[in-house]
Amino acid sequence: MYRDPVESLEPLHSRPALNRTLRVGMIGIGTVGSGTFRVLVRNQADIAARAGRAIELVIVAARNLARAAGIVGEGVALTADPMQVAAHPDVDVVVEVAGGTGPARDWVLAAIAHGKHVVTANKALLAVHGAEIFAAARKQGVAVAYEGAVAVSIPIVKALREGLAANRIEWVAGIINGTTNFILSKMRDEGLDFAAALAQAQALGYAEADPSFDIEGIDAAHKLSLLAANAFGMPLRFADVQVEGITALQGLDVACAEQLGYRIKLLGVARRQASGVELRVQPALVPATHLMAQVNGSMNAVMVKSDAAGLTMYYGAGAGSEQTASAVIADLVDVARLDGVNAAQHVPHLGVHEHATNALAVLPRAAVHTSHYLRVPVRAVSQIQAVTACLAEQKVPVRQVALAAERPGIGPQVLVLTGPVAQGTLDLAVHALQARSEVAGVVATLCVELLEG
Ligand code: HSE
């Protein structure tokens, strides 16, 4: 039976007044934590006006207490034990910005068990332990907010949850890892090699503590699983994301893609199909004229295709101290407004809490349909037809064929752009190509994403 959601709200007069300061305990005071403190202090009047009450940091757990004291000064208690923050009687909300998935899980669950709301920027934690954490939060009637976990300065969780609440979302796709986008941009624009570009990204504080999370696509997969849960109302399915990073990407393919009018970006794609959902992170060709191809450096961008709003795109910094702080504090403002009122007033995060009702299957790799780029090393330029004939035999539609520009020390390369084809069919075709005597080396393949409405 339809029940007016408004009826389920508590009457206004029974809600506690919101004039009390929201007291924050923070676990971790590294790049994100120190940025959060700085912005909280700098913009405190505006933040309080938006939150309806002051927001104050009361205690910080840090490994290096002297360093922490240097950041927060006097007036904020310090402890080396995160569990003290999780259990502190004067704390209303715990901000977890320490990272990691082991101890962080215990701290967050302890905070929830003590009735604290949680704000976290820890995408790995939620991707891996989210089901358990959100279930615990629901039981305790507290919020777990995580805008800072995805494409930090872009309010994409809020856009999916609230701004696009009217829509059936068809796909979400984007550049959701700043480190890899920075590396790809540096390699393309400045000819830097991979290791030098990664070292710069680390020096700028974009990379994860373990940068393999960035370059192997794992960080993007963490974020994609959160986006898909919110977009489609499906449970968090991090373990099912098809993940490929940029470590095997060759400079030659970056150059050949350019020749064909494309740029290579590490994309996260969650697309609804009739039989399930594609969840994949992989380097892909994007038309060079597309807005997504103009997203450079550590910037992120997310496109959403939905039935009523159509195509929308969101752009902003994907990493950084105050950029992440912006999202963390927005969550604190939400929590400040939510704390003490009926949680039914809050637009839920689909896919988490009790709303993970949409048991969409994640499509296996072989069933994913996209267009592809192939680079086929051949023994002679005249063998271009052997390549197209083999693809035709294998029922792979060919949209464009070209020869790669000549490069010293590199033999002839046939470049092919296919039409949409199942990955399984393409894999068989590549296998067949690889067995041909005309083919002189390993065939390189990448997805092509047109990102059209
Ligand atoms: N390492 C992440 C990135 C940080 O490069 O995007 C922000 O999540």
Please tag this protein with its features.
Alpha-Beta Plaits, 453 residues, 15 helices, Dihydrodipicolinate Reductase, domain 2, 36% helix, 3 domains, Rossmann fold, alpha/beta, binds L-homoserine, eleven-stranded mixed beta sheet, six-stranded parallel beta sheet, disordered N terminus
Report on this model:
The protein is α/β, with parallel strands linked by helices and 453 residues long. The chain folds into 3 domains: 12-152 and 324-355, 3-Layer(aba) Sandwich (Rossmann fold); 163-317, Dihydrodipicolinate Reductase, domain 2 (2-Layer Sandwich), CATH 3.30.360.10; 366-448, 2-Layer Sandwich (Alpha-Beta Plaits), CATH 3.30.70.260. 36% of the residues lie in helices and 23% in strands. It contains 15 helices and 17 strands. The protein has helices at 31-42, 44-51, 65-72, 82-87, 103-113, 123-140, 156-163, 178-190, 194-203, 212-215, 218-232, 251-260, 321-338, 384-393, 423-434; strands at residues 22-27, 55-61, 77-79, 93-96, 117-120, 144-145, 169-175, 242-243, 262-273, 276-287, 299-306, 310-317, 369-377, 398-403, 413-418, 421-422, 444-448. The strands form 2 sheets. Strands 7, 8, 9, 10, 11, 12, 13, 14, 15, 16 and 17 form an 11-stranded mixed sheet that branches. A 6-stranded parallel sheet has the order 3-2-1-4-5-6, sandwiched between helices. The longest helix has 18 residues, at 123-140. L-homoserine binds next to helix 8.
Report, as a whole number of angstroms, the end-to-end distance.
36 Å
Q: Can you identify the CATH class of the largest domain?
A: Alpha Beta
CATH topology of the largest domain: Rossmann fold
Largest sheet: 11 strands, mixed
Q: How many extended strands?
A: 17
- The outline comes out as elongated
SS class: alpha/beta
CATH architectural name of the largest domain = 3-Layer(aba) Sandwich
- β-strand percent reads 15-25%
Bound molecules: L-homoserine
- Count of structural domains: 3
Mean pLDDT: 92
Number of helices: 15
Which percent range fits the helix content? Answer: 25-40%
Radius of gyration: 24 Å
What low-confidence regions span 5 or more consecutive residues with pLDDT below 50?
Answer: 1-17
